User: What shape does this take?
Amino acid sequence: MRVGYLRKGLPIMSFSVNTNGGALIALQNLTTTEGALAKAQSQVSTGLAVATAADNGAVWAIAQNQRGNSSALDSVKQSLQRVQSTVDVATSAGSSVSDLLNQLRSTTLSATDTSLDATSRSALNTQFQQLVKQIQNVVTNASFNGTNLLNNSVTNLQALASSDGTQHLTVGAQNLSISTGAAPSGQITFTGGTTISTATAATNALALINTSITNVNNSLASLGSASNSLTSQLSFVGNLQDTLDQGVGNLVDANLAKESAQLQALQTKQSLGIQALSIANSSTSSLLSLFR
Assistant: This one.
């Protein structure tokens, strides 16, 4: 049922109890406002302008890829840190070996004195053997996470250096073990059977110890360089990860100040829309007065 009337100079105004056009328009506007309000509330609560693929598929896909790269760099950092810890343990043990070798040199030099009596020489030889055993113990226990870079159990150690697993940092092992056989097998040029029980034996041992000291110090220099390389790579990976995270934030993070202001505006618009819909819904009741 429709009732209409004509005002001079104006189109026909009509009311219908079947269809309320004003209410439909008000409802459409209110629905649009509700959608914008829900989006603003989501951005304020999550801090993300692009939280799902539905928000912006292309940006979300790019952000997800970069998140994956950033997450992979966590594994790279862990690998570098493990290897660095192994190198640090080896370096610390190598420094102890170097100190013990200096003590060995002092003891051996004393044993080259031909004026020593048998008791003194025996005491020096006993001290020499104890120092050798200490070196062996230090090298044997220089392990981290089951890896020992000093006892000739591995040739090198690799750490991840890139998120795709194609690049590595390699640390060369240093053999500081003392051979129990007839010939030396590493940087230490004397064997477990070396003695300083005579002046001649001490003189021969002294030459071997001096060579061993040079070799061990060179090995420590190599381990130190490897440690510096690992530290530099860790720093680079950390900075790269921060840059990736910041880039993802630039893509998907919401401007909270702007969204907060937008949220308040939409809440006001929502209230007005509800009032407009209420007015439009009540307009048809005015038709009743025409029939009184």
User: Anything to note?
Assistant: Strands lie at 2-5, 13-16, 143-144, 147-148, 156-160, 168-172. The chain has a mean pLDDT of 85. The first strand starts at residue 2 and ends at 5. Residues 57-111 form the longest helix (55 residues).
